[in-house]
Fold Glycosyltransferase 8 domain-containing protein 2.
Amino acid sequence: MALLRKINQVLLFLLIMTLCLILYKKVHKGTLPKNDTDDESETPEELEEEIPVVICAAAGRMGATMAAINSIYSNTDANILFYVVGLRNTLTRIRKWIEHSKLREINFKIVEFNPMVLKGKIRPDSPRPELLQPLNFVRFYLPLLIHQHEKVIYLDDDVIVQGDIQELYDTTLALGHAAAFSDDCDLPSAQDINRLVGLQNTYMGYLDYRKKAIKDLGISPSTCSFNPGVIVANMTEWKHQRITKQLEKWMQKNVEENLYSSSLGGGVATSPMLIVFHGKYSTINPLWHIRHLGWNPDARYSEHFLQEAKLLHWNGRHKPWDYPSVHNDLWESWFVPDPAGIFKLNHHS
């Protein structure tokens, strides 16, 4: 009997332990942290791909940058990370404008650009001095400013985005291409070239073909140029091909030999890019770069044409925040007032 009683006690003890273990698991099932396997299984659904957009904020035209950012952020559900690039003396103002306006919800990083990297690489005698501003060359140094991204969008500040920036980001870059641009020969028929007097759309408008270094390139002067105001770039290819070093080489050669055309149909940043990327770039959907809106204040376009555009670019002298300009109502609808009251619109003579 004593043995039987001892066996019963052991069985009772084991039963109680089993019940306690089951109860413990039930109670703690909902409170224990999920294991690594659970987290990994949800990563593709929960983590969106980050779309890096690089845009400069120059002191005298910071309102343009903020309008562009507002238009991008308002027209997409994508996870955008804005890299706002400025010179040291503007960084505080950039942050205040964003944090004290409707843009406070955006995801952004402020990046300082050191103009000393341009020392000895820019001729001071450009017919358009405003194009010599250091931030105009930020696009040359994308891998030095942006480190953790494979693909990057660069935009000039005088643009407004009307489409979903995800579409532009999804631009396919061919194997071995470090960037995609818009060809200057792909202008929609609504943009009649005859209305854009003085506009250059070939290499002849950017390079001085009287110079031996240009002739030796073997590029036909009638080759269609491209506009680097909108860029989709592959950072791996950019670094692999040492694009920045190549661009700096042609900047220095221009300082020594004055290789760029005196007409400078675009800007001093365009010419070296035309050389380095000749025959080695992919193309952007033309609707994602409707440009030359700042070329002629008398050249207006149909409302239907402008509504179809995914991105509008006021490249040229006539900016939409100044006078005279065209289609400034489209730009002004995205304008974010300066909390400091420094940047003001000028739409009257």
Remarks:
- The chain is about 30% helix and 15% strand.
- Residues 210 and 259 are 9 Å apart (CA to CA).
- The beta strands are 50-56, 79-86, 108-112, 151-155, 159-161, 179-183, 226-234, 282-283, 311-313.
